[in-house]
Amino acid sequence: MSVPPDRRSAPAFLIGCHRSGTTLARYLIDVHPEIACPPESKFLTALHDFLGAPQVLAGLVSLKLRPAEILAEIGVFAGRLLDRGAARNGKRRWVDKTPNYYRILPFIDDIFQHRALYLILVRHPLDTVASLQEHFWYATARHEDPEVARVVERHGVGLQAWAHYWREAAETLAAFAAAHADRVLVFKYEDLVARPAATMAQLFAFLGEDTANGLPESAFGRARDPGYEDPKAAAQSAVHDRSIGRWRAWPRGQVDAVWPIVAERAMALGYEKIGRES
Prior knowledge:
Strand order of the largest sheet: 2-3-1-4-5
Number of strands: 5
Helix content: 40-55%
Order of helices and strands: EHEHHHEHEHHHEHHHH
Radius of gyration: 19 Å
Number of helices: 12
Largest sheet: 5 strands, parallel
Structural class: alpha/beta
Distance between the termini: 36 Å
């Protein structure tokens, strides 16, 4: 892969639907001696909402500031915080892993002056839905994660609700990837667990970096900074494939109720058709 040298200094984001394996991917990225991939930063959503608050943008424009200039200044501020976090971990650059950012990718791209790189992780929708149901079975419209609360408020709870969320995230990410193909790498959870070293080599090459040594073994058994992420991943001692195909234990009727919601986007991603006629 021929990669422009400026990619080594580009902002980078790891994005995906909740429960797609982004925490595992972060552990593998964070092994790299030059790249910090911390727990979810969350704060860019607040900066996005700040500009959308009543009268804020008009008030800033009245200071003779152009909208593009305002966005660039927000990017400078955000970049400095993330740079400082990376430096305190002894790293040259960062990859921000925050699944919720899929909803504000155009804003992120604007504030970072259309230089950012994006790693989009996808996972079989039915496995993702199974994991969402297991992890957020108790969720309400007042959940602490605003994205989870939004899904519950909009779609309710249960497998079909999470299927609608997966489809929304997948469609949003697909549209963004198509519009920014030169700066987006889409990779699959199934490939990550089946061929972690090869998948990470592709990912690091996309970022303009050499491959990290010792993957995947060196990603586990290390002290972790506290933060927002999947607590189950922290307990792993190795990459495994036990979470692939869990949906196959579902009753047939359950599969038939969920698959039509996600089928079109799933098959566009290369997942096999599921159904009595498949």
